[in-house]
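Narrative of activities, Objective 1.

The group set out to show that a structural description can be obtained from nothing but a protein's sequence at a throughput compatible with the screening campaign. Below is one input-output pair from the validation batch, recorded exactly as produced.
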Amino acid sequence: MTPPPVIRLHPDDNVVIARATLLEGVEVAPGVVTAERVPAGHKVATRPIAAGEAVRRYGQIIGFATQPIAPGRHVHVQNCGMGDFAKDYAYGVDARPTEAAALPATFQGFRRADGRVATRNYIGIVTSVNCSAHVAGLIADVFKRNPFSGADPLAEFPNVDGVVALTHKTGCGMTEGEPLRLLRRTLAGYARHANFSHVIALGLGCEVNQIGGLLAEQRLTGRLRSMDIQAMGGTRKTVEAGVAFVKEVLAEANAARRETVPASELTVALQCGGSDGYSGVSANPALGAASDLLVRHGGTVILSETPETYGAEHLLTRRAVSREVGEKLVALMRWWEEYTAREGAEMNANPSPGNKAGGLTTILEKSLGAMAKAGSTNLVDVVGYAEAVTSRGFVFMDTPGYDPVAATGQVAGGANLVCFTTGRGSVFGCKPSPSIKLATNTPMYRRMEDDMDVNCGTVLDGDESVQECGARVFDLMLRVASGERSKSEAFGFGADEFAPWVIGATM
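Output recorded for this entry:
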């Protein structure tokens, strides 16, 4: 059976979504035909919308008509914009006990000595400053597999996933206080991450972010070796010492073995990037269904990207387990309003040109679709950027909307798996935590199949329900957590995507 040409998401909506590009004269509602071409994923009005009247999708306000819109007209940036409206935060009114799964799911993970569980087993090099980035790369390159010659320096260590250098563009020329604390918290989150068996903390020696200060402030000890290039005697000697350390610990790292562990040991970072008009219809709701399954099995999901939750936060506060948790989220929104105003920007500047080309008109529309990734369970906690996530269930982390920066904070907080939805076709990876890519639509999935792990376009095509697609995603989560390689891992993505949030002045 051929699905209808448009998707109606809620009975109260005054727009529908084009399943494919609509030409003039296509019926989109009883007695309503398109008056112009409407691109795939974009909106078309199903009744008259007066100037100033709310435009509704998902049964929620996504903007206001900036001019009268006739039935059958394309609804987008040319006739729809932002506006103020009252939000009822109704803290906790929709919070309900989460029903535990009857038979807990499991996966094959690495159980660390401290009890935490890893999904991968890397040796990491964490840099304190950009000035030590190249040297870190030289150390990691010694152990890099060559996909052309087949040479593999780690062939004798099959349980070691690799040696990865995590470099960045800051660490000096910065002010102390919050900017430095935030960077150190991020670096420490990676240094103590369960997916690293051992870590080198590598600095230059004269930077603001001193290695000694990082170790002391964050209380980093144990499986970590610190080095300063200046104290070591320069590049060559530092590389030699770094390579020697990795060789020294390879046998110990390789001794790790996968064992059966409960799905409750999974902490999944929820991400979306290169979104389109289908993101909130297929991939995000499917990931939300998978998130609900994981929470039912005792696991944790982390939603982030605060600017991409703006305007929809009142739907999350209703699910908060307490007023205190809900008010933390609202306070974040106020901070972002002040932050963007201070920088001469506005929250609605968030949808990128690609988002808009894909059919997303305002940040309100984008946020309503983005939050679907978190499913329907209770909001149990709200944490700051790169803070350790200790609660089980659905947690919100404050991050920018820029995907690499957001994912870096989530992994620093403990995420040992990443699920990333995309409609336009974002290519992304995230070492040391594997990243699963979910495509919102079948044409893009087929075009970029080498990069996409799951086709959620089946929901749009009418081949399966959101719940059925979510069950497939959940099953893949367990398989990838158990060692199955994701598409981004096959390409070696993940080191260059490390991007700590840089705030404050660069001096």
